[in-house]
Amino acid sequence: MPRFCSALLAFVGLFIGSCAVAQEPTQFQPHTYRGGKDAELKYQLLSPAAAAQPGDEKFPLVLFLHGAGERGSDNQAQLKHGTGNFATAALRQKYPCYVAAPQCRTGQWWNTQADLLLELIADLQKQHRIDPQRIYVTGLSMGGFGTWELISRKPELFAAAAPICGGGDPAKATACASLPIWVFHGAQDTVVRPELSRVMVEALKKAGGMPKYTEYPGVGHDSWTATYADPAFMEWLFAQKRQ
User: Does residue 85 register a pLDDT over 70?
Assistant: First the structure.
């Protein structure tokens, strides 16, 4: 079994309740996407205030992928970590955007729902004023693995990616080497070993990419709290645009 698959399976059933809880967002609205073959994906959507006004302006879309502990069907648990940073008044004013936070079903993984996630993005583009040149994906833990999976499957869709404490398949790095990617991991992470991010970063470099990598000294699995609270990260993310 490949190393990245072994690492993914290693934290089956692990919850992230021991980590810091971000501000609970209240501006998100629950929705359900229904695809082919009776596929269903529940998600929460944060919309920019300006989108309610008439006009032709389009806004970025951030796809946020939660960790293993937030799987389920309540369409609420996925907002526990990370999404609150995108919902603050200051960020919504400075970087108006859509934020879609789907919820992975119990017993499933983001890599098994990757096609459904891509369908969701296409559906959101039909319904909302989304700038196709500014679609971003980020996720933590299991969502970090999902981020790597999505950008290796369809790199041309995204303007940037930020996988946090995740891992991927180094053999697929060539597919997304040209994409702006900022990788994050805690140096003391015992749930998902930082070596998994390091391997992906090196694979991207060997493929001609120029990824950014931040490894937090003394930090365990919760490397997302510092990442999403960092103004430099938000500035970098929203500055990216597909050419």
Answer: yes
Asked if residue 133 has pLDDT above 90, the reply is yes
Give the C-alpha separation, 177 to 18, whole Å.
34
β-pairing, 40-46 vs 98-102, is antiparallel
User: 106: helix, coil or strand?
Assistant: coil
Q: In terms of CATH architecture, what is 25-239?
A: 3-Layer(aba) Sandwich (3.40)
Q: By three-state DSSP, how is residue 47 classified?
A: coil
What beta strand segments (E) does the chain contain?
29-34, 40-46, 59-65, 98-102, 130-140, 160-164, 182-186, 212-216
Q: What is the reported pLDDT for 17?
A: 36
Tell me the average pLDDT across 112-126.
97
Residue 34 in 3-state DSSP? strand
Of 215, 117, 231, 119, residue with least CA distance to 165: 215
Record the pTM: 0.89
Contact criterion met (CB below 8 Å) for 11 and 192: yes
Q: Give the pLDDT confidence score for residue 86 in this predicted structure.
A: 96
- Judge residue 26's burial from the number of C-beta atoms within 10 Å of its C-beta, 0-12 exposed, 13-18 middle, 19 or more buried: exposed
